[in-house]
Structures are given as structure tokens and as C-alpha cells.
Design brief:
Number of strands: 11
Helix content: 25-40%
CATH architecture of the domain at 90-187 and 243-259: 2-Layer Sandwich
CATH class of the domain at 90-187 and 243-259: Alpha Beta
Strand content: 15-25%
Shape: globular
CATH topology of the domain at 90-187 and 243-259: Alpha-Beta Plaits
Radius of gyration: 24 Å
Strand order of the largest sheet: 6-7-8-5-10-9
Distance between the termini: 78 Å
Length: about 290
């Protein structure tokens, strides 16, 4: 029994080196392993310490704050600035000639419901719009769901870019409808991104983490060969090994899935504009 106790003590000592476990490469490997089923937002760690987390739509999201966070959130919302991470919302980008975009987009919305994609103040790119989408030529039946959209400001060219934001539960239906009305097909050459790490590689990374019984020296062979682990590519609504861009050979319209590539935050509170003013700085004008 004494020998068994000594053996168990040696096994436990391998995981006691917190400094080794907290190295950046080991943390990223561990985070990637835990994101195999549910993707984390970039603010996940902050939320996980203050919120009750839930797993929905392929993401791990903060559902409700803990008791210690209610007063702080309310105080920030009423007196300062409260930031919400809405990056789990999906973004589809449409690029092409403005008249071609508007002609087909008119088939999935109706002026009878109010705003459309060709509203003047939205078309200029200065404001965000919101509307309900329907299946092509099926209004008032077969509603797909509510979306928000914003045009890239005009630059004098007839080519425009449009970003459509939607809930992840609606993404596949809306994407399927957009590809149908614009007659977009799979690209001939699909770029398949290199995975963050295969399951075997990730397990090897974890074996290194768990087998670090002593502090690793700088000249150690493992330390020399260690390379940063890449972040997982893709999001909870898209397989990282499937195409994320589709093109119409007839009109040249390109549909791209920008989910988790364009982050989105919502600021609430009287000091929201002040925070943006202090945070964002206008870039200097560069001429070629």
C-alpha cells in the first residue's frame, strides 16, 4: 500500500506545475480541444468568470449574469457604458453590381412591410436597416426571418458590398435562398484552410501539458520545436472544410460567409459615444 501511495503521488505531481500548464501554447491547445463541439467567442473567458454559460447554436454563450454581476451591469447601462458581444450572429457578404443586387434582393422582401434594401438612406451606407426576409416571390407566405443589413459606403463605382446579419438559427435557410436567387455555384477551386490541429496533434499537445513534471528549460528540445497552435477556423454554423464563398457566373455576384470573421459588439449607455470616440481613431489619408 505504501508503494501504491508513492506511485499515485508521483502521478499527481506531473500536473502540479501550473506555470507549465499556463504557457500560451498549452492554453491554446487546451482551448481548441474544448471547442471541438461548441465554439467560443473572443470574450468567452471574461464571460465564463461572470456569467452562467449555455451551449446553443454551436456556440458557448453567456446566458445570465451571476448575482455579483447584476448591479455592475445595471450601473454600467444606466450611468456608463455596457458592451454586449453579438459576434455569434452570422454575417453574409454580397458583392457585385448594385443594380444586379437590388433586382434580385427585391424578390425576398416587400415594400408593404416597410423598409427594403434600396431605401435611400440605407443605400448610401450611412445607416443600418432591418427587415424581414421571405422566400423568393412568396410574400406574404414563407417568411425566413428578421435580418439587419448595412451597405458599404459608395466609392463612385457601380460595384457594391452588402453585409446581412442574421441569427445563427436562420443562417442556412437564408444562405440557401440567396444562392438560389443569384444562381451562385461552388467555386472551381475551393480553398480548404489548414485545420488548427488534428485530433491526434491536439492529444499530443495535451500529453505534453500533462507530462510536464518539471519546469521546462529554454534549451529543452521540446521548447525549441514548439510552435504556436493555430486558432480554430470556422464557426458554429459552418464546417471549416466546406466552401465559404460562392459566385454567379451569369452576373458575377459573390456570396461570402463572414461569420466569426467580422466581430460585432453592441454598446448601451449614456457614455457609449464617448467610449467610441476615445477608442477609435481616424486613420490618416494615404495617397498612392
Amino acid at each position: 500500500q505504501a508503494e501504491k501511495a508513492v506511485h499515485q503521488k508521483k502521478e499527481q505531481s506531473k500536473t502540479k506545475c501550473r506555470k507549465a500548464r499556463r504557457r500560451h501554447i498549452n492554453l491554446v491547445a487546451e482551448f481548441n480541444r474544448r471547442q471541438r463541439k461548441n465554439i467560443w467567442l473572443e470574450t468567452h473567458i471574461w464571460h465564463a468568470k461572470r456569467f452562467h454559460m449555455v451551449k446553443k447554436w454551436g456556440y458557448c454563450l453567456g446566458d445570465s449574469p451571476t448575482e455579483k454581476s447584476y448591479r455592475a451591469c445595471y450601473r454600467a447601462m444606466t450611468k456608463h457604458c455596457l458592451l454586449q458581444d453579438l459576434s455569434y450572429y452570422c454575417c453574409l457578404e454580397l458583392a457585385g453590381k448594385e443594380n444586379e443586387l437590388l433586382q434580385q434582393l427585391a424578390r425576398i422582401c416587400s415594400i408593404d412591410t416597410g423598409l427594403t434594401f434600396e431605401e435611400a438612406y440605407c443605400l448610401s451606407g450611412g445607416f443600418e436597416g432591418s427587415l424581414n426576409l421571405y422566400r423568393a416571390d412568396r410574400y406574404p407566405e414563407d417568411m425566413l426571418g428578421p435580418v439587419t443589413f448595412i451597405w458599404k459606403p459608395k466609392d463612385g463605382s457601380e460595384n457594391r458590398q452588402l453585409w446581412i446579419w442574421m441569427h445563427p438559427a436562420l443562417k442556412q435557410d437564408i444562405l440557401r435562398e440567396l444562392k438560389a436567387i443569384f444562381q451562385c455555384s461552388e467555386p472551381e477551386e475551393i480553398y480548404i484552410p489548414e485545420p488548427a490541429a488534428t485530433s491526434v496533434q491536439e492529444e499530443n499537445q495535451m500529453d505534453i501539458v500533462l507530462s510536464l513534471g518539471k519546469k521546462r528549460k529554454k534549451e529543452d528540445d521540446v521548447g525549441e520545436k514548439a510552435v504556436p497552435v493555430k486558432k480554430i477556423i470556422g464557426d458554429g454554423t459552418r464546417d471549416p472544410f466546406q466552401a465559404f464563398s460562392w459566385i454567379s457566373h451569369a452576373t458575377g455576384i459573390v456570396i461570402s460567409d463572414r461569420s466569426m470573421e467580422i466581430l460585432r459588439y453592441r454598446l448601451i449607455g449614456p457614455l457609449s459615444h464617448s467610449v467610441l470616440t476615445e477608442t477609435l481613431k481616424a486613420a490618416s489619408l494615404q495617397t498612392v
